[in-house]
Amino acid sequence: MHTFLLSRRSLLAVAAAAALLPQLSWAQPGGERITIVAPFPPGGPVDTLSRMLADGLAKRYNKPAVVENLPGAAGNIGIDKVKRAKPDGTTLLVIPAGNLTINPTLMANFPFNIDKDFAPITMLAKTPNVLVAAPGAKLRNVKELVEQAKAKPNTLSYASPGVGSGLHLAGELFKQQAGIDILHVPYKGTAPALNDVLGGTVPLMFTNLPAALGFIKSGKLVALGITDDVRDKTVAPEIPTLKEQGIPGVVVTSWYGVLAPAGTPPELVARLASDAAEILSQPAVREQLHAQGLQEVAQKPAEFAAHIKAETATWARIIKARNIQAE
Questions:
Q1: Residue 23 has pLDDT above 70, yes or no
Q2: Claim: this prediction has a pTM higher than 0.70
Q3: Phi then psi for 161, rounded to 5 degrees?
Q4: What's the CATH superfamily of 32-126+253-321?
């Protein structure tokens, strides 16, 4: 009798302990395959990250995982597909920051409510932006830029890939924090904007660090500052941040995250975030990301959701204060 009681107590203890454990190991995507929706054409960071995630999840769950590129309507076609998908972890969305944090304010009839329509899983990767100057501008650092802008208002200008782009808003935020006014010159894409800065037509530009790095190293562009809290230790540790140079609050990274449809069970969202972190930590994956100027990021779902909300609020203030309207 005594032995039986001990055994029964042991079983009860084990059962109680198991009940307290997170249910991550039991949570798995349903269905026969996993679909990663990339709402842009093949090529570029969204496509690259989608394929890395698909490959890793396929190995973990021993089922096919495919990438479906659905470009169109500034990404909204692919976003809509995921919004309407069954919330069982079989359909996921890989998306850049602007679609989540800029478009809801910039677009007059934005068709989604990010808070209500999606379950944020994790940020996957980011790349800092950099403020660059044409050598002919004869600017060596941010202090010289600010001094010139204050001495001769509206004589300096900066290029961007277009009105309402993250790099346009980076410039507006910089102007606000530095207390200066410089003219915005919008282009239709990064390439033509960067070409005119290289040619000296426009003296300044905020751009992704990977796009500018080769020109910086060859002396064709001057790097004035990184738009992040810390220096990029991976590819350009020598470039100081704007914060180091007396302009705090301009933290504008180009980042990419993954989301599931609203209603996806929290334990499954947490499991997918954990899976993504493990995939991104693999040396081969990290090497591939670093080669493209991307830094791997792993966040808890609640942390990622809070980041989206905070950045959305920042851009909403800038867009409304500067009366920026989508073209």
A1: no
A2: yes
A3: -70, -5
A4: Bordetella uptake gene, domain 1 (3.40.190.150)
